[in-house]
Structures are given as C-alpha cells and as structure tokens.
Amino acid sequence: MTKTKVLGVSIPRIDAPSKVRGTRKYPTDFNLPGQLYGKVVWAAQPHARVVRIDTSAAEALPGVVRVITAQDVPVNEYSIGGSNDQRVFIPAGDKVRWLGDRIALVVAETEAIAEEACRLVRVDYEVLPVVDDPHQAMEPGAPLVQEWRESNILCEIHIHKGDIAAGFAEADVIVEGTYITPYVEHVYTQPDAGIGYIDEQGRVTIIDGGQWAHDDVHQIAHLLDLPTDQVHEIIPAVGGAFGGREDMHIQHLLAVAAFVTRRPVKITFTREEVTTRTGKRHPFYMTYRHGAKRDGTLVAVEAHCVADAGAYASTTIPVLNNAASFMAGPYRIPHARVDVYGVLTNNAVTMAMRGFGATQPPVGYEAQMTRLAETLGMDPVEIRLKNLLRPGDLTITGNPMHEGLGLWESCREAALAAGWREEGDHWVRPDLGQPSAPWKRRGIGLACSYKNVGYSFGFDDQSTATVDLTLDEGGNIAGATIRCGATDVGEGVQTVLVQCAAEALDIPPERVRFALVDTAAVPNAGSVSASRHTYMSGNAVVRACQAALAERDRALREETGQRLVSATVTYHGRSARPTTGWSSDPTGRGQCDPHIGYGGGTQIALVEVDTETGEVEILKMWAAHNVGQAVNPEMIIGQINGGIHMGVGYALTEEYVQVQGVPRTRRLSEYQIPTVWDMPREIVPIILEIPDPTGPYGAIGIGEMTTLGTAPAILAAIHDAVGVWIDRLPATAERVYLAMKSMRKNVVTVHPSGQ
Predict the structure, then answer these.
(1) Which residue, of 39, 92, 228, 464, is most buried by count of CB atoms within 10 Å of its CB?
(2) Looking at residue 511, what DSSP letter applies?
(3) Which residues contact 285 (CB under 8 A, 6 or more apart)?
(4) How far apart are CA 655 and CA 711, in angstroms?
C-alpha cells in the first residue's frame, strides 16, 4: 500500500462544513424543556465588607424560583491553581475583593424576571480602602486584599546567574529602560454561556465553552462535595478563548444552579459582564539594564518586574514563573539577575492570556536590544544573530537550549525576506522607499521572541488519547475514532490530531473521526494552553495509533474475528524532557530546567508614521516561525495572521482601563480592538521546519508564538521612523504625537561601564 501523505497538506478543518452551514452548536444554542434562567448579583464595590444580604424582595417576585447564595454551596471555595482562594458567592461577614465577585444567583422562569429580581436583592456594605496600585500594595502597612496573607505579595521569583556586578564591570556600554504593558481584554467572540442540568444518570452536567473540561469537573466536584464521576461536562463548539476560558467564569454557576434547583438552568453573560467581571492579561511594570561589549556581545542583563495579580491568585504564579524564565529574552547571557513580583490588588483578576507570561517581556527586552544596536552603531539584525540562543547554549536558568528552537534561523530568514543583505560580517538594512506623503516617515523594526511548549517547572504534563479502529472483513481499517479531551477553541487542534492519526494509521483523514469532548466519554488531555496540544496530544494520539495497530495485528494473527480494536496511551512530557522547579541555592538561585520544549520566531514591521497626528500605519509584516513539522500549513498561516492581529491591538490600540478598581472600559465600544483598517496591508508568513526530535513527526506548537514579537517590532519601527521611544503600550496616536512633540528620550540612559 502506498504511504498516505497527510502531513504538510492543508486539508480543510474538520469543523469547517458545520460551522459554514450554521449547524454546529455553540453553548448558547442549547436549550432543554422546562429550563430556567440565571442572572448574577455582582459585587457593587471593589473592596468592602458585606454586612447584610436581603433576598426577600427578590424571592417574592412572581416567576423567581430560587435566589442562590453562599449557604447553598456545600464547599464555597474554588480556584484553578489549587489555592481555593475564591468564593462562589460572598457571604455576609466576608469581603468582596473586586467587582467580579458574586453575591447571589437569581434563578427564574425568564431571563427578564431574573434581571429584575437581581435589582431587588439588597446588599449592605462597609466600604474599605481600595488597593489599586501594585507598587503601593507591596508597601508595609498597605490594606490587605486577602486578610489571611501576611502581605499583598502573592509570589516572587528570583534568578541569579553568574556575577551580575562583574558582568556590568566588563560592559563597554550599559543601556537602561523602563516599560509598562497594560491590562488587556481577551475579547473572545462568544460570551460565556451554557446550560446546567441533572442528566439521566443523576450527574450534575454542564454544557459550556471551557479550555480544560476535566479540571473544571475537578473544581466543581470539590465545591459541590461530590465524587468526580457525579459531575459531567460537555464542550461543543467554542467561540474563541485565548486563555480567557481557563478560569471558571460560568461553569461553576451552571453546576450550582442545576444542583440546587434540580432543573435545567441556562446562563448567558452579556458582553458588559464579560468585559467588567472576568479576568484580564497581567499588566507588567518592567525595568531593564543591559550591558554589552563594543562588538555587541551581551555580558549582563538585570531585570525587575512587578505584575498586578488582581484580587485572587488564578494562574498568576505559573504565569510569572514563565515570565521570569523569559525575562531576559532568547539570548546568551553569562551574568543575569531577574526579580519578578506578583502583587494582589482590588483590580480585575489577571490570568492566562495568549503567551502566558511570555508576551509582556519582549516589549522590554527587544527594545533594549534595539537601543543597544543603535548605541553601538550596529545593525539590529546583526546584534541579534550574534547573541541569539542556539542548541546547546545555556539560558539564564542554566539549562541547555533544546534542538528544534529555530530562532536564529527565523531571524536570518525574516531579515532576508524583508530586504536586509549580508556584506561580509555585517548586515545592511533595506531601502524603505518613499513615504506616501511629505509629512509621513517610514521605519522598519524587528523583534525576536520565544516561549515554552507545554507545562513547566516539574509539572507532570500529560495527555491521554484513545484510538478505536473499525476493521473490515480483511482486517483493513475502515475507520478510526480519536477520543481525547483536547478542546478546539478555534485554533484547529482537532484537525491537527486527525492528520497525525491519519499519518500514523496510513489512511485518508476522511476516515478519522474526532469524538465530542465529553468528560464521561473521553480521557483527560489537559488544558488548551501553553501551545501544547500539537506536541502533547499529538504524541499521545500517534502512540495510541501505533498501539491500536499492534492490537489489530495481534487480532489478525490470532484470527479472533474482531471488528473493533482500541488502545489508550498517556503521554508524559517529562518522559522526553524532565523539567525541574526553581533552585534556591544562593550561588545559583533560580537555576533549573524549566520547560519541555520551546518555540520561537521573528517579526519585522514596516510602518509609516504621520508626523502631524502620530498615527501609525503598518505597511507590511514579515513573520518567520519554526513549527518543526508543518502539519497543516494553511492553519499555520491562519495562526500567524491571527497572532499579528492580536499583537497589533496590543501595540497600538488596546488598553483595559480601571480607576480605583472600577472599570472605565465596560463594553466593546470603549475597547479598541483593531479592525481590518488597522491590519498590515500585507503579511508575509515564513514557515520554518526545523524538527524537535521529541515532537510528533518533529512538530511543535505555534498558537501563542505568533503574537509575541508583533508589538516590539512595531515599536522599533516607530522609533526608526521618527526617532522616539514609546515605553508604554499601547502606542496610540496621541502618545506617539506627544513623544514626537517633546522628543523625550529620558527612558534610556547610556553611559560607559563603571560610571
């Protein structure tokens, strides 16, 4: 039989036909006979003690079935990370710590009645001082957000490599800078929605859009004090996530409502509720100091970061662990010191968002590299290629870089595509052409970045897959079914896994079916995060296919007549590359082997800046990314385009604004996501295939990497065009104009070593 070649082929996504026809159901499309409707009574203060809750008027309203409060929840605590510092509902006597806290859930015969009843719930508050600045929150004596903690510092991470003082003493040039990145809203397309009910087996069941169904079940079983097999979650089509559905925003409310009323209950958040009452990307306050030799060789990097965690832990600790490991960038650095702090405030809870701690640092470390290049009179490509990590090089955490990163290659290929050329040992920038108007200036900038693939720091990252093979009379594979809890939130992971299975089984992908993600029927594959499923679940699926083929061969040898064979495999990432947690050894603090794998890339932006208004137009972007093995090239291009779109918003327009813990950004009309008019006129995707030897057919993930370098590349291009440094995102037209007007350059300090 001729080998089926399905890897590297852009087959249509397996969910495309039903989505195009409008037949595929999203959580809000599900309805059940006799269903009720739930609406939340949200906290009215960002920081206050709840003195009294009076639900009597709401309960008396005709059509109200139940007003659910803390006393109705068997174990009124939960969290994604195991800290259980969040409450399903805040009881009288406890505190609300941000406006996303809930007082009650009204369940009624109609949504309108539930909304009216919410307004009738009376809550008396003792207002407390609001802690909204993470730097002030760190100070001794600051009001405590979580009173059971000794301070508002949720976590701190320190990395010491080499001798930082000796490193800066070696430097011929030292460059300093301070950078601020904002809160960012996920803006997934489908608002949080779903339905909870008691199924025919008596299980508490929810249908919703989540990123890790099996972890949701674990958390819900805890708060309902039920065995996990009595909780059941189904995830149909999901309208985007970007990390925003990792935390439970609605799942636990659906479960509690069904558990208490024993009837189906549907809940749909409004867009304003999603915007003001759910988690955001962490804002970072970063200070950098870079030292280099005259030839551009990096010798020392010092970085300090304070991140706003908001009111609860959520995923702040793993996000900042990641951030710390990437804080100095993808460069060989013999001497480094990194200090990172996560601080509790009464602002919005901050959580996972595309890049998971690796998105913010490039805004700082790539600006530093561009400034070093300018100070030394070097080309920005040249200084990066001189210092970029290559396989075997040691990172700031002391671990050798793995095979398959491809970052050096991505920088070179992107530069060549954008018009740079090599002349001996030096690189020469391209001719940018004439601007479109006399008052406009053109500039070009690039940025390199990298992040982890899979969970890190000793976590046993794993994915389980079951493959069922249906055989014909001759023992040939008539069809295959993959059962794996890898939720598709729009990125196409299930199509990738189908292609991996088809390759392993040597059958056309049309014969492979991917089962609905249903925790009662599919095994745990872990979260849709960390760009991990191509690698983790891909390895699990390929190995399960191989095991199923062995079962098929056994059945044929023994002539059992079996028409169905199955195999289940759990793939552990640490079986290929064990990871370790932070070392506390003072001589090498923070040294470890943090990540299973890495993905990297280079973005280059060509922009025009209007000197009269400060408006920035992106003419073209080049994006070179290594994927190890391009399973589905068209979907990779889609990820690149989508990642650039999100990065453009991060760079130029998006900022979630809060004042004293109260959102000023409440709806999409007040939050400027980029439209087609803001996108580059042209995007040039460059797909590199430098295999990771431990990936399925060499493949690694790319979902998050395509966003990371976009903003710093645009900032570098703005500087190249008009000579100003923008040190705070977003680089709005107003900020760019004011920077040009004053030609402020106070962010950077350049001085000879030792002065």
Answers:
(1) 39
(2) G
(3) 134, 135, 178, 180, 305, 306, 307
(4) 13
How far is 395 from 330, CA to CA, in rounded Å? Answer: 8
First-to-last C-alpha distance (Å) of the chain: 73
Pairing of strands 153-161, 335-344: antiparallel
For residues 675 and 8, give the distance between their C-alpha atoms in angstroms, rounded to a whole number: 31
pLDDT of residue 749: 41
Question: Which helix (H) or strand (E) is 195 found in, with range?
Answer: strand 193-198
- For helices 213-224 and 251-261, the axis angle rounded to 10 degrees is 40
Q: What is the dihedral of CA 398, 156, 316, 290, to 10 degrees?
A: -60
The reply to whether 157-184+280-456+582-752 shares the fold of 16-24+460-575 is: yes
Among the residues of 162-234, which ranges form H helices?
A: 164-170, 213-224
* pLDDT at res. 424: 87
User: pTM higher than 0.85 for the full model?
Assistant: yes
Residue-level pLDDT at 81? 86
Which CATH class for the 157-184+280-456+582-752 domain?
alpha beta
pLDDT tens-digit profile of 115-134?
999 999 999 999 999 999 99
What pLDDT, on a 0 to 100 scale, did the predictor assign at position 744? 47
Q: Is the CATH number of domain 16-24+460-575 3.10.180.10? A: no
* Extents of the domains making up the chain: 16-24+460-575, 31-128+192-268, 157-184+280-456+582-752
> Is 189 buried (19+), middle (13-18) or exposed (0-12) by CB count in 10 A?
exposed
Sheet holding 749-752: strands in order across?
A: 153-161, 335-344, 298-310, 284-292, 173-181, 749-752
Contact 253, 100 (CB under 8 A): no
- Round the average pLDDT of the chain to a whole number and report it: 96
Contact criterion met (CB below 8 Å) for 379 and 429: yes
What are the φ/ψ torsions at residue 272 (nearest 5 degrees)? -65, -40
Q: How far is residue 557's CA from residue 554's CA, in Å, rounded to a whole number?
A: 5
Whether residue 500 contacts residue 538, with contact meaning beta carbons closer than 8 Å, is answered with yes
As given in the structure block, the two tokens for residue 196 are 């909870």
Tokens 């002349």 -> residue: 423
Burial of residue 227 (CB within 10 Å: 0-12, 13-18, 19+) is exposed
- Give how far Cα 753 sits from Cα of 300, 370, 619, 648, 726, Å: 11, 19, 39, 36, 25
- SS3 for 143-169, per residue? CCCCCCCCCCEEEEEEEEECCHHHHHH
Q: Superfamily assignment of 31-128+192-268 in CATH? A: Aldehyde oxidase/xanthine dehydrogenase, a/b hammerhead (3.90.1170.50)
Task: Give the per-residue pLDDT at 335.
Answer: 98
pLDDT one-digit tens code per residue, 467-517: 999 999 999 999 999 999 999 999 999 999 999 999 999 999 999 999 999
Q: Give the pLDDT of residue 306.
A: 98
The strand pair at 173-181 and 153-161 is best described as unpaired
Spacing of C-alpha 574 from chain mean position: 22
The DSSP-derived string for 294-349 is TTS-EEEEEEEEEEEEESS-TTHHHHHHHHHHHTT-SB--SEEEEEEEEEE-SS--
Packing angle of the helix pair 380-387, 361-376 (nearest 10 deg):
110
What the block records as the tokens of 333 is 């650095």
Strand partners, 449: 601
Nearest to 681 by CA among 604, 617, 624: 617
Listed as ranges, residues in the chain with pLDDT below 70 are 1-4, 744-755
Displacement of CA 118 from its chain's centroid (Å) = 33
